[in-house]
Give the backbone structure.
Amino acid sequence: MAAQWKSKRYFNLRGSDSSLKTFSSTSDANTKIGFTSVYSTSSPTKTEVLADSDQTLVVTYEFNSESDQTAFKAAIDGAWGDSSSPFAPADSSDTVEHFKTEWLNQDGSVSSTANL
């Protein structure tokens, strides 16, 4: 895959008491967050790590082409635009927060950041 079409997205999970939840692994984070199929649009290669004392899941998405990356972003934006959510948390009282996206240069350095 071409390293020029990469982005990192940062996710955490808040309980009904507004506290951040801690993940035991990336698998646990995926289960608790409940990413819907929209996050598989264009079949990105995903690299996942935990950060912030295991309270943040950082997912790096890598695409074969710019059009694949654009389709991925459009699908996620569309899920929000349909007044739905691209998440189905394991505990329906939890709130998933996608709080930052970093668009990466070919060398892996950050090209731009969107704090959401």
